[in-house]
Structure formats: structure tokens, C-alpha cells
């Protein structure tokens, strides 16, 4: 009986407990918005301490069953977490504030996004603010000095000049070294299609005003998702999109003036006459029998060079350098309109850039238009479209190695007049007068580019989406080169060269993505998909001459078609890829990815490659022993390992190729290239270790990284025996490494209501070394560069200049033969043929970096960036003509006059002037210069008119600003500019190369 009562009492107690428990649970609902009142879809809502959760719908609404006293946790990428304790109320509307912590910044990674806080990769992100208002013709130049481990060098100061971008050093010798560019998911066609010997930048077509962000994937863990094309790094460009809310219209206008960053001092007419008269006299006994014949010869030469003018009385003193340069300008005008509602968002933009270069005959006109639209058919189904068109019209000049390029005019003596008395260019100059080329010829390149993408995603289940993309990239270029009958080197009655290239790039991709927060502690992200990328290219050119008049400037005006060519080619990539990320309690982070690429470019036996990557991170600051630290606010350790490939080797290196030949007017076919079915990827294996830190609640933050990259299977043309019928075959032989570290430090130095000052500093060190080469590690010498085991790629290899013999003025060289003990023989000789070439420098910097400061005071803003490079050298290939101790009749740099050896006992590095003497003019370290420099890359000062003044007129923002590029350069480099390189070949070399432009601009931003 007692047991029954006990059982009955227990049953009643259990029923009451269940009743009260059930009564305490209820449906809680509400809306989640941002701090501007816009709904936030996809916000994760969990009951603290449980695995129960939900997400907001497209309109920011949610509903969840919870009991009084429980806590709801609202979390959303890029926003601060919010907590709500359930009381008797059933409706809880939550406003989430955007996180100001850069750790909550969202980064675009391959086929998805991720927050910096949980990132295990090394990715640097640059926003629109980093490239806005920088008056340059290409967006890449605006990135200089702002990304650790990324070296950006413009070839020279021509408006269309190509760029060299190296992410953590050069990872190849003969294959491509440029990163893969991905624009809104489209891998861009990025081949140089120029025909005049100087490269153009294919990415001129992208306007900075349409870019929202740029992510640079530096380590293998981030880049391996792009597999065979990620070895040189990946640059992901994301364009702007509309946001829900009131439509915004923005107009930006700017205009600036440009000048060379530097000019050099050359001999005046009087100095030229004095120096070359002395040089002729010094050549008595070698080039001349006596002084009288020497003077007679040199004065006859002066008569010719002066073209009938009175050189004895200084009638002409032409500044040829001043004629070659001109005052340039940069004009930018762009507009954008964006907005949207709960279903549709849009972004429209257009821009016009006109750039007149600092070298005569060089101009750029570019038009861009873009449309980005997204639409939500339902809470689960989204589609969108990105479409852009650009047209770049470039007036070009000859490459640096052509006599008719304007800057080679510095070789003309000042006693030569530029124009005749009738105003026509003077043709009686020692070298062709570039003014004749300017007046009687033109070279015009037009690049038309269309990028388009349609995309959609459908949420099958909560967190599980299927994504699809179809993209198209068209690169269409035409070149027209007219050379009239009065142009230099033109032996026929005019000539026209016309070419066109049409490259089409198709990308189709589909992938599944799963992103889900599982309770409070677990977050899982999965991506798996496939992609097909096919590129087709068609090229044609034709040359005609014998024109009845220079008024006819197209091919159909020529009487004789003298040359023509055409070809078609294609390549394709087929890929499978997958990635998984896991986050436990925001503390323990794991990631793995893999990509399997197949490419038509590689041999039949090695067509497919697999590129895996793994990474992990530990957020130590989330551990209990650091959570309450008042000083250390963030500390994360991360490490990664992965493999990436380099497929930038051309379309057919693995194939047996045959070409058409003619013998005795009979057609035939001959082998032009032996095939290699085993040819495969250059593979880079990279390991990265990093530490990310933050102090004082993020006021000070930064990261330190160490990396090691090993590239094997380097592509080389290996010589074959003559009886094989071919000279060489492409093979994977060779290995090199890059290793170094990067340091980034960000600080909010002052943060008050009326004054803010923040700074960002980055520095990188990279050591590059060749580990093995073909043919038993034999040296490979090309010009003044060498590939040698144990040395950097393309190390400088030349005679070592030893200065001047103070007794007789001879230029000297170190013999540098090897002594019996293995040391170098440091004796000197005046005969370079008795000396030995040695490795003397690195064309790539070992240290590089930058520092950016941003200051806001009331309505005034100021930002400026310094960049620096250290540890590299430049070889001035034109130095043996420009600074040659009056060896021939080229005008000379001023030091050849002021510092020359003239009598025994003179201590100088400039040998005695000797006409035709070749005194110290061998290609040696005499013309090799360290090019360490620090440069004020850009600076902007702006003023924003207060809101209370402009709101009455319907404006939301009016800002005026002044900005400058390349404002100051601190360097000991003696050439034109430490960033000017030859566009006609030669690694690390300058050759009559145009320096970058220094530009000052005034601009206006208006929004309403």
C-alpha cells in the first residue's frame, strides 16, 4: 500500500514537472536587422548551451521554441554577436552592429567566403579605399606597397606598360611567373599580345572604380583550390554590387598633370665639343697618326652633326631629353548607381580615362561600362548577372631597343638641331631623329574586352546550396602600324602592318556548398564541384608596302602584299575540386582542399595532376587562460602545406609539331618540334607557418609568417643530338626554392571623436635559389644573366669593373680567375678578354614593403603610402653608350666630363676619354647599380563638406581632394628611376627606359 502511494505521488510529481516544463517553453519570434534597419538573412540563432537553432529568412524573420530564462545567441559574419535572455515577452527584434574588428572581416576565397578570424590561410585583402583616387592607368599600380610579400613593378613609364607581379618570389625560370587573376569568378585571359616588341598590360581593361575588393592568395592552402594555375599566387577581384535601400548615385571627377620622376644631366654643346676634342687627341697613336689629323677628323664630324650651323659659336644647344619628354595628364570621370529592394539589387557604372604619357606620342583612352544585378526569386533561389565592356585605345611608340623610340634621342649630341629652318625634322643626325618617326608614322593598339557571368544558387536544405556559373571573357585586340616613306629606315614607299587577335575564354562551373553552425561549438563548411575552362585564340596579320601616297594608311592602299600570317589554337582545363573547413568553439580550426586538373597543354601520359592542401589554426586567445587578458586580445597560430602547379607554358610544348615548307616550289611538311608525352606541371610545394596577434582590444594587430616554397619539374628545352632532326625537346628538369618571412603591423594610434590616426606597415624578405638544372647542373647564360645552381634566378653575370688606373687612365677589370687554393685572382687588367665573368648581383629585391598612414581630423582626411625595395640591382644596358668615356659620338652623361681622368694621379672611376678606344666600355659592373629606394608612392588630402551644409540640396556627400603619385624618391641609383626596366627584354635591365610618371591631381566626389 505504501508503495502504491509512493508510486502515485511520484507520477503526479512527474506530470506536474512535465506540465510546468511545457508551459515554460514557447515560440519566440522577431526580425533581425543591421544598424541601418535593413533585414539580415541567414543569421544563426542558437539557444545557448544546446544544439537547438535556426536561421533568419530572406526578410530577416525568425522563429524558435525556447523557454523563459534561456539565452538566444545571434551570430552573423561581419557583425558583433548579440545575446537575448527570454522573458515573458514572445517577440524580440534584434539590431546587429557591424563589427569594427578586422578579424570579423569577410574575405573572398576560391568558390566561397570566410571570416579572417577563422582563416587558416595567408590571404591579404585590399578594399576599394586602397585603390580609389590613385591617378594611374591600371589598378595593379595602386596596390604597390600595401600587400606583404607581393612585389609589383611596372616595366616603365609608358601608359600601356606591362607589369611584373611576384607573389613570394619567382617560382619559375622559363614558364610564366604572373599570378592567376580571377574577376568575379572568371579566370581572366592575361597573355601579352603585343607585336612591337614591348608588352602591353592586358588588364588595362579593368577600371579601379568598379572594384569592391582584391584578395591575394599567397600560400598553397589558399591557392591550391585553383590547382594547376595557383603556383604564382591568385588575385581575386570582386566588383561592386548594390545594397538594399535607397538608390545611391555617385560621380567622381579628377584631373592631374604628370612629369617624369627624374631626368638626367647630359653634356651641353660646349661640353660635348671639349670632351670629344680631347678624346680624339687622346686617341693619337691608336686611332690617329697625329694630333692634327685627330683634330681635322673630329671637327669634320662636328660639321656633320651641326648640320650647317655654327657649332664653334654655340649656335645650337638642343635639349633632346626635353624634346623626348612631354607634360602628361590624367583625366578620370566615372559614375555609378546602385541600390535595391528585398528582392533585387543592382549596380551600374561607367568610366572614362584619358592619359597622356610623359613620353611623346604615348596616350591612352579607355571607356568602361558595367552592370551587376542579383535577384531573389524566393528565400532559397537566387540568380544574378555581371556584365562589363571596355575599350582601350592606345597610341604607342617603339620599344626601348628601337632607334626611333623617343628616349633614345638622348644619344643625339646637343650640337645637332632637332628641326631644319623650314620646321621639318632634321634628318642629318648621328642616329635617326625620332621626330621623323613621330611625324610620319603611328602605332595604334585597340583592346576591346567583354566579361560576362550568369550565376545562381538554390538552397536545397538549410545550409546546403547548389551553385552554378557560366562565364565568358572576350579579349579582342587590333594593331595598326603605319610607316610613311619619310620615316627612318623606310626604304619603300610606305608600309602598313595590321593584325588582330581574338581570344575567347569560356568557364562553366557547378558546385555544392554546405555551411552550417551546429550548436554553439561546431561550424562546418563544405564545397565540392567541377569546372570546365576552354580558351580559343585566332590570330591574323598582313603587311603591305608601296603606297602611292602617305595619305593611304591601310592595307588596301599598298601595291604589294609582302607578308601575312595566321593561326588558331585552343586549350582546355577540366577540374574537380573539394574543400572542407571545420571550426570548433572558435578555437580549433581545420581546413583541407584538393583539386584534380586535366589540361590539354601537357603530355598524354601526364595530363592530370592532383593538388592537395591542408591547414590548421589554434586561436589561443579563446582559451580560458587568456580570455580575461586585458592586454592580449587575439592570438592565433596557423600552419599550412600544399601543392600548386604552373600551367603557363603555352599550348603545345608536349606535342609533335609539323610545319609547312617549300622546296623547289614544291610543298612539304617537316618536323618543327619533337613531342614529349611525359611533359607535366611545374609543381610548387609550399609550407607556411604564421602567428596573428592583437593587443588592446585590436588597437594593435599584426601577423608574422614564414614560408618555404620548393618548385620542381622546371620546364627547360634540353638539347638533342643533330641526327634527331630537332635541336631541343621540352622536359621537366630543374628545381628552385623561395623562402622568407613577412611581417605586418596595424595600429590605431589615436582614436578620438574628432581625430583618428591609423597606420599599417608590412615588410617581406625573400631568398631565391636554384637547386638543380639540366645537363648535370650546367650553367645557362643569356646575355648578362645566368641560371646557376646556388644562385638566384637570372643572377647578373658579367665582368667586374675595378675602377681606373691612376697612372694612365685605363679602365680596369678584375681578372677573377681561380687560384689553386680556390680563391679568386683579384689582379686587374685593362683588357676585358683577360677577365672572367662572375655572379655580381640579384635582379630581384630581398627586402620590400610599405607603410600606409590614414589620418582624419574633423572633415579633413590625409592618407599616404611609402614603399621600399632593398637588395637588388639594375644593369643599364645603354650605359656603354651613354657613359663610355667618349668612345663613340653618343652624347654622354655629365659625369664623363666632370669626373674624367685627365692626368697621372687622378683618382676617379671615369677612365680617360678616348675616341674609338673602348676604354672601360665592356659590359661590366661599371654599369650595374644598386637600386635600393624608398618612395612616397601616393598621398591624398581631402575635405568633406559637412552634412548639414549639403543635405538641404539633396546631397549625401561632397568631397574635394588633391592626390599625387610617385611624389618623392630617396635613392642612390644613378639612372632614370629604380623602377624603370627595359620593355625589349633582359631581366633586371634598363635600356633607354622611360621612368614612371609623377602625377598631381585634383578631384571631386559627389553622392546623392
From TrEMBL:
Lineage: Bacteria, Pseudomonadati, Bacteroidota, Flavobacteriia, Flavobacteriales
Similarity section: Belongs to the TonB-dependent receptor family.
Compartmental location: Cell outer membrane
Membrane topology: Multi-pass membrane protein
Keyword 4Fe-4S: no
Family annotation (Gene3D superfamilies): Carboxypeptidase-like, regulatory domain, TonB-dependent receptor, beta-barrel domain, TonB-dependent receptor, plug domain
Keywords: Cell outer membrane, Membrane, Signal, TonB box, Transmembrane, Transmembrane beta strand, Transport
InterPro entries listed in its UniProt record: Beta-barrel_TonB (IPR000531), Beta-barrel_TonB_sf (IPR036942), CarboxyPept-like_regulatory (IPR008969), Plug_dom (IPR012910), Plug_dom_sf (IPR037066), TonB-dep_OMP_SusC/RagA (IPR023996), TonB-dep_OMP_SusC/RagA_CS (IPR023997), TonB-dep_rcpt-like (IPR039426)
Domain TonB-dependent receptor plug: 116-234
Ranges of residues in domain TonB-dependent receptor-like beta-barrel: 429-775
Protein name: TonB-linked SusC/RagA family outer membrane protein
Taxonomic source organism: Leeuwenhoekiella palythoae
Signal sequence region: 1-23
Main location: membrane
Any matching Pfam family: TonB_dep_Rec_b-barrel
Keyword Transmembrane: yes
GO cellular component: cell outer membrane
